[in-house]
Specification:
α3 packs parallel to α4. Helix content is 41%, strand content 14%. It has twelve helices and eight strands. The chain has two domains: 11-247, 3-Layer(aba) Sandwich (Rossmann fold), CATH 3.40.50; 249-302, Helix Hairpins. The chain is α/β, with parallel strands linked by helices and 303 residues long. This is NAD(P)-dependent dehydrogenase, short-chain alcohol dehydrogenase family. Residues 10-184 form the Ketoreductase domain. It is found in: Peroxisome. InterPro entries: KR_dom, NAD(P)-bd_dom_sf, Peroxisomal_Beta-Oxidation, Sc_DH/Rdtase_CS, SDR_fam.
Length: 303
């Protein structure tokens, strides 16, 4: 049998946990024994307004089930306040789940600076602020787990979501680097690209499918990635509807030219099929592996 995934004596911060995916995460973490700080500003899906009731309701649910939770109503851009409350109430921080997000969908030619800036601030700056405030405490205790919430809109692109896609794939870049920096202090960092039936996706997904994409079908992956049982780091996982899979970069073997004599745009055109051929493709895991083909080409033509 599999080892139990438990969180006794662990403190988990979940942002945007007043509903949808965040609420489902919070309920499951609490069920598994965690002390949960339920953060939610309580604004609209477009990032407007504030309402404390969202986080308060989830805390009440957790407590009614016998769990331990406190509500936090700060904006994620005030991440230091969120982390400080967890420290004041629970004395430590073990897990950060960066889940808070908004949508301000518009085609690029109609988008204004406010639509771009607010999405960036909530998704990227907010995740940075909360994680940055928790990071030194995780380093000091030589333990931490961080989950970032990316999106298939960032991985693959999506019409009308240039701001959202930019922010979501940016979070995976942050995931990769923090995974490298955090490993020596036992801080593991992963990202998910979830699909769930929430207020942010309502109206974007056919109703019959929306009903099947329950947020609760995403949370078990998040809880496992945040556990001591899991040693995965720097991963990106698509998840939803009871299915999950790991995503990795793939790159063609490409074409090499003699760097001593140079090459022309016409040479590029002549080799275009080879440049774009993914047969026998490489899957670089880091910058060293990413340079393999280029270095081999330099060695081939070395003096």
């Amino acid at each position: 049998m599999s080892e139990s995934v438990r969180f006794e004596d662990k403190v988990v911060i979940i942002t945007g946990a007043g509903g949808g995916l965040g609420r489902a995460h919070a309920l499951l973490f609490a069920q598994q024994g965690a002390k949960v700080l339920v953060n939610d500003l309580g604004g609209t899906a477009q990032g407007e307004g504030a309402n404390a009731s969202a986080a308060d309701r989830v805390v009440a649910e957790i407590r009614a089930a016998g769990g331990i939770a406190e509500a936090n109503h700060d904006s994620v851009t005030d991440g230091d306040k969120i982390v400080q409350q967890a420290l004041d109430v629970f004395g430590r921080v073990d897990v950060v789940v960066n889940n808070a997000g908004i949508l301000r969908d518009k085609t690029f030619h109609k988008m204004d600076d406010a639509d771009w800036d607010l999405v960036y601030r909530v998704h990227v700056e907010g995740a940075y602020k909360v994680t940055r405030a928790a990071w030194p405490h995780m380093r000091e205790q030589s333990y931490g787990r961080v989950i970032f919430t990316a999106s298939t809109s960032g991985i693959y692109g999506n019409f009308g979501q240039s701001n959202y896609g930019m922010a979501k794939l940016g979070l995976y870049g942050l995931t990769r680097t923090l995974a490298i920096e955090g490993r020596k202090n036992n801080i593991l960092v992963n990202a998910i690209a979830p699909t769930g039936g929430t207020r942010m996706t309502e109206g974007l997904i056919p109703p019959q499918v929306f009903e099947q994409l329950k947020p609760e079908l995403v949370s078990p992956l998040v809880v496992y990635l945040a556990s001591e049982n899991c040693q995965e780091t720097s991963g990106l996982f698509e998840v939803g509807g009871g299915w999950m899979g790991k995503v990795r970069w793939e790159r063609s073997l490409g074409a090499g030219f003699d760097p001593r004599v140079g090459f022309s745009p016409e040479d590029v055109a002549a080799h275009w099929q080879q440049i774009c051929d993914f047969e026998g493709a490489a899957h670089p895991q880091d910058n060293i592996e990413a340079l393999k083909e280029m270095m081999a080409n330099l060695q081939k033509y070395s003096l």
